[in-house]
Specification:
Elements (H helix, E strand, L loop, with lengths): L1 H20 L4 H8 L3 H8 L7 H11 L3 H19 L1
Length: 85
């Protein structure tokens, strides 16, 4: 559970840094992704875990390649899998 929370927090940080690197406001990304500002804030702060559908909604406005995202988080995902077994 601890590693899962870490994954949520790290994903949130990644999304926030990506948004800021593109010089986008949270409201702009939320609107383009058809999410509420509050929900996007919760994701960025590691409070909420986005579903796969939500990630797909964020791909375009944040110019994210899902393959690169997976590669970046694969080591942490593998740790979670190992602990679950």
């Amino acid at each position: 559970m601890k590693n899962r929370k870490l994954l949520e927090e790290e994903l949130g940080k990644y999304l926030r840094l990506r948004r800021k690197a593109l010089d986008l406001k949270q409201a702009t990304v939320a609107e383009k992704a058809r999410l509420s500002d509050t929900y996007l804030s919760q994701i960025e702060n590691g409070i909420s875990s986005p579903s796969f559908i939500t990630l797909l909604k964020l791909v375009e406005p944040l110019k994210i390649d899902l393959v690169d995202l997976y590669k970046q988080f694969k080591p942490l995902i593998d740790q979670i899998k190992e602990k679950a077994e």
